[in-house]
Design a protein that fits this description.
The complex is a heterodimer. Chain A has 21 helices and no strands. Chain A has helices at 3-19, 24-40, 48-56, 63-76, 79-91, 97-113, 116-133, 138-150, 159-168, 172-201, 214-219, 221-239, 245-263, 269-302, 305-315, 320-337, 340-357, 362-377, 384-392, 398-421, 424-434. In chain A, helix 18 (362-377) packs antiparallel against helix 20 (398-421). By secondary structure, chain B is mainly α. Chain B is built from six helices and no strands. In chain B, helix 1 (23-32) packs antiparallel against helix 2 (35-75) and helix 2 (35-75) runs antiparallel to helix 3. The longest helix of chain B is centred in the first third of the chain and has 41 residues, at 35-75. Chain B starts with 22 loop residues before the first helix and ends in an 18-residue tail after the last helix. The chains are: A mainly alpha, B mainly alpha. At the A-B interface, helix 1, helix 2, helix 3, helix 4 and helix 7 of A face helix 2, helix 3, helix 4, helix 5 and helix 6 of B.
Amino acid sequence: MSELDIGLLVAAVTIVLLLLGVPVAFALGLVGIGFLVVFDGWFAAEFMAQQLFESLDSFALLSIPMFILMGGVIASSRAGPDLYEALDRWLYKVPGGLMASNLGACALFAALSGSSPATCAAIGKLGIPEMRKRGYPAGLACGSIAAGGTLGILIPPSITLIVYGIATETSIGRLFMAGIIPGIMLVLMFIAYSIVAARIWGHEVRDPNLAYTLREKLEVLPRVGPFLGVVIAVLYVLYGGIATPSEAAGVGAFLCLLLVMVIYGLWRFRDLWPIFRDSMREAVMILLIIAAAEIFSYMMSYLFITQTLAQSVAAMEVSRWVMMGYINLFLLVAGFFLPPVAVILMTAPTLLPIITSLGFDPIWFAIILTINMEIGLITPPVGLNLYVINSIAPDVRLPTILKGTIPFFLLMVLAIVLLSIFPGLALWLPNAMMGDAI
Amino acid sequence: MTRKNPTGGHPAAGAPTEAPVRGAADHAARAGAAGAVGTFVRAVAAVSTAFGMLSVVLLLLAVFVVCHMVLVRYVLVESVIWQHEFVTYSLIAATFLGSPYVLLTYGHVNVDLLPHYLPPGARRWLAVLASILGLMFCAYITWQGWYFFHEAWVDGRTAGTVWNPPLWVPYLTLPLGMGLVCLQYVAQIVALIRGIEPPFGIRDPIAGDAP
């Protein structure tokens, strides 16, 4: 059996195990150990427990639970609604301002929480009823929040980009930088579309006499400001190379915890326990996949599959952009079924040699990959954001939400195309701030 | 597909989760199960939950120690001795020891496309099969992890750093945590066969709800 045949077999067995409903971490580990044993005997799999332990034996991994905790703490506070209200008060007079304030709040909250479903839930809970009350069609209201929420994994700090950085050993600071401009670009595209769509299909109901005083406009800021301050400080420390991501995130998590206790009065055990519990569950889930994916990719390179795959792709007589198209299609399909973190951990170690041998930049690819994963969050069957929206606006039927998300889906594809034509959109900022990549 | 409703109850507390916490609802189902099997399933759930709490404590401890480390290193400008290793090991321990609780509450993310479209009877046997496959991996790791720990214990291996902690302590969390995952899997399989627990934690699926 050639390495490529074994590779195909690995893919087939993995897909079957995943479809059977085996947890991603255990499925990856089982495939890894199984193939080592079958193709090379028991001794090849002897050190896999050690491998599992050692793949977690890294200080850099600490940034994952710390950022999750930081995001979880902020998401559990009233920071989301506060942010939304603040923007709405500022933009009330602007035509289509409600759309802009919703999507803007999504982008800001995405930066605060680093999580897409959390952003959707926090902004959507207020934003969707308000938009519908003011005459926007339900599909547009739900679609814009679902899409706006996906920015959580692109705008820094993003758990997805941290995981990519760890899986491919690329600089997390650089990855975060690269996400900023594409993130802002996507927000602006979303806002532009929403305003146009609202003009065509919606009848924006505004009370022309309602005006917010400057005091009302400013009163929300003291409550939201500190969180923004902490996140900006964390990012500054991280970019400046003053402290490692784990240290910055750890202090950030601690400060945010302190802030919700002081500003929002969350200090009782029953307030804090769900935050801690859910952060722990998500962190353990991700870390265990990271550990098991290490066994999987160890097997792939031990059996020489990764190397052969990269070589044969490089030897193919197709244009590298056609190849990039196929890779994106593959990722898109994977993203339909699996959450972003799982897709990245499973594919990045195998894809990265291919990407670099085709002459693509790994940082640029991270952004393409992330936007691709954003699409997976708003498409069935496991579009996480769709179900979050479905649970906060139960009277809107899923097909209506889906129809509302289609234009945003297309805008994200457009963003991928734009980034392919102008890679500088992603690469200019990290190169300008941190010097050219080595 | 059933709605992916995050935790419910607390406003946005469920937001960071990737999957709903279904365990709580299932405790009620378990509580109704009588006899030795019911007791066994409940006991395992209690042990997993206790270790889940320990995992939370370890993560919070890591937060405080990191802050302490930053304080020592950047504010007092002294060298840090034990903090680096301590947080790394507590993170590893939190991952392995927290795993049984995450399994109990269906937090280990999986593709639940097929389960949602299967009729309840077939879904239950699929859940049993998926659990056995997961158990195979965990059992192998527990077995190998035991040797990994035992070797460090017998040889009295230490980290060889300034702090120089004995390595059997962090190593022990691997076979212990994965062993508890095995136990949780066995309880889950028993509960599935006895019909105590709904397969894949899906309580009232409406097949065809998903587009």
